[in-house]
């Protein structure tokens, strides 16, 4: 769960007993999974039924975009506390037809009635993080439709069909999802629609292996399959949602839904160690991953040693600098006072890098001098034609706002909590404005004689963990020669705030003591999420894919 912007800044153990027991164990990883290799196409998601649904699309001749949207709809059913049509969507994709990167921002805006003045009149000194007042326009459904229309080969109705079947017939809930669901019972019980939709007998979360159905969501998806996304964006379904939110004090109008449009955007990128790393432009936090990489590039990180104290210190300190800039400058790109590219310029990066003390932890670094005046699912897929998609869909906190309009079957996001009420801040709450966003897909291309070719589609879900997770997984691959699954499994750090940093258990006590001597405060990792990653890599021939053991998901190919 992502903390508000003003404060920016889980294990599968597999034992194998056979005549190959003498095989050297993966001493640096959390699990014994192998990288999935496949000749034609692959998909990796955070839940097996979603992976299976996407794989079936690939096997039937659909492309990576078709598979991703199909899997995303299934995840709305089977991982409802993280994702769904009540949230937002971002995607980076390599189009084989266009031979270039394409970016999609399908995030929604604040409702026409969401003003700083009205919030203050209601006694708020910050935008609420739950309830109807936190609800912004959900953009995910518009993104699903746009991806299929522009780059897919199947209809939205076809993509929704597996999710409709699973929602109607039911499914056994997986263990990690069940555990996380149980942590949200209080929030769900506070809303009539959420309680009726997501709590067994209105009192508890489903247990691991227990059957769960969502017939209301099945009916909603059938309506959309028949009438298209317009049923929600201005139609009768949208009217029901708006009326339900307004009854609870929310700020949406039907015009807010009707006027919503997803936006095709130009991705941002930086060169790093001979490759090009891509993120989406603000209002997302992907620029922080790019800034971290630029700050770190001159250092001989490999010589420091993987997850040594020196190595972790440099990454944590780079993260602090980049996140200070996030908190000060990043907002809806239409409202930023500093062009995003300026935050990646040589001059700006040099000034930031100069502040990185190689031997001492900084507490709360200030943002840089301007040169000029979030709960989530992540999935990735690739197909035989060479299309690759990096896809992230979220409703922000667990079950988002905690609001389910009765009969609709899906939770509405609480992205309004990403705004600040600080006067004159570029991310100050205002009608029709995109809030600061945590969810970010990532992509890596490599140079060819004529331009670029796709190599890696990856992401790390988990609020403020995401940019720092992107950097860790990528460095595992590029500097330490890990295979794809090892790069995902390897223990991570998560910088929390100030001097506080959490380290996953495999990081040694010696490293922890060394970091403490440098001024870091080591937090109890048992209460910290280190994110969940999926990744797809293009091989010289065929594909590789990996899925994070910190989640219930899997990678599969054909």
Describe this structure in words.
The protein is of the alpha+beta class. It has helices spanning 48-59, 64-78, 116-121, 140-151, 156-169, 175-182, 185-189, 192-198, 215-227, 236-247, 254-258, 286-296, 301-304, 309-329, 346-353, 465-480, 484-489, 509-517; strands at residues 36-38, 42-45, 88-95, 100-106, 171-172, 211-212, 263-265, 268-272, 275-279, 376-382, 388-394, 442-447, 452-461, 493-497, 500-503, 521-523, 532-538, 543-547, 554-557. A seven-stranded antiparallel β-sheet has the order 1-18-17-13-12-9-8. Strands 7-4-3-11-10-2-19 form a seven-stranded antiparallel β-sheet, covered by helices on one side. The chain has a three-stranded mixed β-sheet with strand order 14-15-16. A hairpin with a 2-residue loop joins strand 14 (493-497) and strand 15. The protein starts with 35 loop residues before the first strand and ends with a strand.
Which descriptors apply to this entry?
single chain; 558 residues; alpha+beta; Serum Albumin, Chain A, Domain 1; 2 domains; seven-stranded antiparallel sheet; 18 helices; 33% helix
């Amino acid at each position: 769960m992502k903390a508000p912007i003003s404060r920016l800044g889980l294990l599968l153990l597999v034992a194998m007993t056979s005549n190959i027991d003498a095989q050297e164990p993966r001493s640096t990883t959390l699990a014994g999974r192998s990288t999935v290799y496949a000749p034609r196409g692959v998909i990796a998601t955070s839940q097996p039924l979603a992976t299976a649904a996407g794989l079936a699309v690939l096997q039937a001749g659909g492309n990576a975009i078709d598979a991703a949207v199909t899997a995303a709809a299934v995840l709305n059913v089977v991982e409802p506390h993280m994702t769904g049509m009540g949230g937002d969507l971002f995607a980076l994709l390599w189009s084989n037809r266009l031979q270039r990167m394409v970016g999609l921002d399908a995030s929604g805006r604040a409702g026409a009635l969401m003003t700083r003045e009205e919030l203050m009149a209601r006694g708020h000194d910050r935008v609420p993080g739950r309830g109807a007042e936190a609800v912004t326009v959900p953009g995910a459904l518009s993104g699903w439709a746009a991806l299929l229309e522009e780059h897919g080969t199947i209809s939205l109705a076809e993509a929704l069909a597996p999710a409709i079947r699973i929602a109607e017939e039911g499914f056994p809930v997986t263990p990690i999802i069940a555990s996380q669901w149980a942590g949200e019972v209080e929030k769900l019980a506070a809303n009539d629609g959420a309680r009726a939709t997501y709590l067994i007998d209105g009192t508890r979360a489903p247990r691991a292996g227990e059957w769960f159905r969502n017939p209301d969501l099945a009916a909603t998806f059938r309506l959309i399959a028949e009438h298209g996304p317009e049923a929600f964006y201005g139609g009768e379904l949208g009217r029901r949602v708006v009326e339900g939110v307004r009854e609870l004090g929310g700020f949406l109008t039907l015009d807010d839904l009707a006027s919503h449009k997803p936006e095709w955007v130009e991705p941002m990128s930086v060169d790093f160690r001979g490759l090009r790393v891509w993120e989406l432009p603000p209002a997302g936090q992907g620029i922080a991953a790019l800034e971290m990489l630029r700050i770190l590039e001159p250092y001989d990180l490999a010589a420091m040693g993987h997850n040594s104290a020196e190595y972790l210190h440099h990454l944590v300190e780079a993260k602090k600098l980049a996140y200070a800039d996030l908190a000060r400058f990043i907002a809806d790109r239409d409202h930023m006072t500093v062009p995003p590219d300026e935050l990646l310029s040589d001059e700006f990066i040099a000034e930031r890098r100069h502040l990185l003390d190689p031997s001492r932890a900084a507490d709360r670094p200030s943002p840089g001098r301007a040169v000029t005046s979030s709960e989530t699912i992540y999935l990735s897929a690739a197909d035989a034609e060479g299309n690759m998609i990096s896809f992230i869909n979220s409703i922000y906190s667990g079950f988002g706002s905690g609001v389910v309009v009765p009969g609709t079957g899906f939770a509405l996001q609480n992205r309004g909590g990403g705004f600040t009420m600080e006067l004159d801040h570029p991310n100050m709450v205002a009608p029709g404005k995109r809030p600061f966003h945590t969810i970010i897909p990532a992509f890596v291309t490599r140079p060819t004689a004529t331009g670029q070719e796709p190599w890696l589609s990856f992401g790390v879900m988990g609020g403020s963990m995401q940019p720092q997770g992107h950097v860790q997984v990528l460095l595992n691959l590029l500097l330490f020669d890990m295979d794809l699954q090892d790069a995902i499994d390897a223990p991570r750090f998560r910088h929390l705030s100030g001097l506080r940093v959490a380290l996953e258990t495999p990081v040694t006590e010696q490293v922890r003591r060394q970091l403490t001597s440098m001024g870091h405060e080591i937090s109890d990792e048992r209460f910290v999420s280190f994110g969940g990653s999926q990744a797809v890599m293009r091989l010289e021939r065929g594909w590789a894919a990996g899925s994070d053991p910190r989640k219930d998901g899997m990678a599969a190919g054909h």
